[in-house]
Task: structure prediction
Amino acid sequence: MQYICYVLITYWALEDKGVFSVKSYYRSIRGEQTNVEGGFWKQLWGLKLPGKIINLVWRACRNVLPVASELIKKYVNIDLLCPQCHLRPETPVHVLFMCSFAKELWCKVGLQDVIQVDESATILQILGQAFRKCSREKQVMLSLLCWSIWYRRNVCVWDKKFLSMFGVQSMAMQLLQDWRRSQEELGTRMQRGSNENVTHLCRPPEGWVKVNVDAACRDQLGFIGMGCVARDHMGRFMRARCATMRGGMPPREAEAWSLRAALLWMDEGMEASKVYF
Ligand SMILES: [Zn+2]
Result:
């Protein structure tokens, strides 16, 4: 009975705006979202930025970044101290806003005044407040730099390297510039309805077999992956093969190796008189 009353009360509470949805009700009982938060999420997902940056900010706000303080709660046996400054516990707020590198970067780009940090604040509160004070362009910069700071932290943890302030800043700006350029190009192509640079797979003539070949280089793991697929003149699948080879080489050479492997394979068993590559 108590539960039913609670549902009805919540229902009426949501109804006074004239809108009731399962989503709003779910968020209400989880205590997840106020109108202010809702505005923040909308602004965040509407930013013109690469998806990986928005995703990082979203994960930070949801408090799911794998920092030491969170990993220790899950019984991972690691050092609690920040791997960059070794002075304070590594929490999400510390990494993104309070670590010496982060503080310096926020000052350098002139965003230190919109970021109000205290020990008890969450990332969602800090960014939510900052977003309310910022223009769209500054919101973009805030998110971009959060991603860059997190990138630097990961390079420090995994590669034991400390990227410089200049390096991090220029990498971030280059990333943004490249992404914007690619979006513009995409927009222009779509406007023109142009098919340039688009490769269409087409069927081979009757009696021929078409073989598509590709290679992937995994330098860090020290091997090359190769694969090919054969189809007949109707586009029907005939055979496929993949293989790995130890060693490293430039992509162009790997492609050539892949083509050679496919040729040998065709020579071994394919009965068609003519083969397309
Ligand atoms: Zn630190």
Summary: Strands lie at 208-218, 223-231, 237-246, 274-276.
